[in-house]
Amino acid sequence: MRCFTVLGPSQTGKSTVVEKLGSLEGAPRKSSSPYGLNLTEFTFGNEAWCALDAPGPNEALAHAQHALLASDACILCVSSAPEEAVLAAPYLRVIEASETPCILFVNRMDEPRGRLRDVIAALQDYANHTLLLRQIPIREGDRIIGSCDLISERAWRYREGQTSALIAIPESAAEREHEARSALLEHLSEFDDWLLEELIEDREPPSDALYAISSRVLRENRIIPVLIGAASHGNGMMRLMKALRHEAPPVGVLRQRLARAGSVDENKLTAVSFHAYHRQNVGKTVLVRALGEGLRQGASLGGSSLGAVQNLANGRSSSAVVPASGDVFATVKSDHLPVPSLLTSDAVVAPPEWTEPPTPMLERILVPGSERDENKLSETLAKLSETDRGLTVLQEESTGAQLVCAQGPVHLRDLCRTLSDVFHIHVTDRTPSPIYRETIAKPSEVHYRHRKQTGGAGQFADVKLSIRPNERGRGFTFSETVKGGVVPRNYIPAVEAGAREAMEKGPLGFQVIDVGVTLYDGQYHAVDSSEHAFRTASKMGVRQALSEGSAVLMQPVFRSEIHIPSIYSGSLVQIVSALKGQVLGFDRDETAKGWDIFRALIPGSALDDLARALRSATQGIGYFSKTFDHFEELYGKEADAIVRAREEPGVAH
After folding, report:
1. Could you tell me the residue range of the domain that residue 154 belongs to?
2. Cα–Cα distance, 587 to 583 (Å, whole number)
3. Could you tell me whether strands 362-368 and 341-343 are parallel, antiparallel, or unpaired per DSSP bridges?
4. 613 backbone dihedrals φ, ψ, rounded to 5°
5. DSSP 201
6. Separation of alpha carbons 548 and 467, rounded Å
7. Domain count of the fold of the chain
8. Which residues form the Translation elongation factor EFG/EF2 domain (predicted)?
9. pLDDT tens per residue, range 104-149
10. Mean pLDDT over all residues of the chain?
11. What CATH number is associated with residue 161?
12. How large is the average pLDDT for residues 427-437?
């Protein structure tokens, strides 16, 4: 079986392309994953094929990445509008990082919204590989009625729902065809000395030789050929499928590529797991592509026995099914197989680094609808994070509630639906509270005496403490300068412990940071003094000093790295400024052509707004990662509102 992924932005007709390709020589067999990955098995040219139709939203990019891990080649569907080329940038980035041979298909040419050369030029801004036209459109007025193949120099007229008809190259297209063919041959000659010599000698190379060269350079992932068509009308589908059949590499090349990327012995690499999901009353289903022979139910894979092998189309298990090299199959009761991963018979190998999904930007607390759901939620989220690498599951620092980090609102909605439909856990979501702190603005001194007589041994401790603001980021410090044994040495650790306890909640209601405490004098009683007494005296004394130290609210500030196509960089200064952030600068992204990395300091309370503004400004393409940087003072009405909210019952920070 040969396998390819069809991917690209939403509304580019990916599913229609897969449907038409699968129907060229018979009826396809289709299966679907709850995550939106559709698998279509079909036969073409007496060969078995499997098309992986990746979901289109950028929030599901992780599933497209994992599909590439199991693919011999891919088809990138793009719009015929030059201004929409940027929407393909995330996919070009992933395709090039994965080293997957790619055919770029400009779909919907029946409704062109710009010149093809402008579409290719706009896409080239995001591709390191040369985008090489293999066809040009034939126009009749404003309509595109066919295409001309630049290698065979044959022209084809589209026919609705039928195979295109061979026609002579129209005179109106002859000059453009000659120009485009010359560019094609010039680029191909960069990878073939014989062709270069033929061109220098002004000899016309035969079509068979050119097809062989173009096939080789695609298999070697040297270029990205560009084909055109309109899948909804069946136009260009046969040419696209023939290009896949003759030019896409066999499964052995994928095995070599994955072995090299994962530093695995190629002879031991048996399979690759690339997708998983949970089904009601079934459990975890894992999709696997065999890269070698000998796999069947009970065989050793990933260090344990392979579970039941299922038919993709009907979900039926059979111990008689023996996947051949290249076959895609589903397996249940194989929970030991992580996704994605490279698999030998006795080991699981981590996938290549390029399979890492974008950093999740949307953080939400999931609130279960009942106590029964609360007990199940943590375990269930852990299961789901194993099958969806775009999801991160944490706990809220202040409450311990389940905190999920999703790719965006669509991803979050799908997660909640899966919890409800598959696991019968009903949840609502809320925005997590930023982690505020407080400190003091001025030093103070306090003399605190703790004395208590309750029958029997009493309690006595007397401490004199100096409290001062520390420099930012230094945290809590404790020192002592007592002399003459006024506070015995064995009680000083208790004084420090009491001071630390006082830092847990300051006068504003938040944890206190960046404060130094010094014990400089005190008294003790030979009978009634104890560690508990000095701990209590220190705690109460520090609390009193904090209330006199002009408490200041502190907000968290995060260092953010924003990844965006370069055309959007100019809008980020205004976005960051509106969020009261600080621009640190930006650089070209050395790992992705046409992308910038924009650095800024953003208040923690504004991260949710940053995610929304970024999605809006970049059509959902941009994303950011964050790391905590420091706390800084917050004053005025905003600080007052936060403190008032902290005092309300049920509000956690």
Report:
1. 2-249
2. 12
3. unpaired
4. -65, -40
5. T
6. 10
7. 5
8. 433-550
9. 999 988 877 788 999 999 999 999 999 999 999 998 888 888 999 9
10. 91
11. 3.40.50.300
12. 89
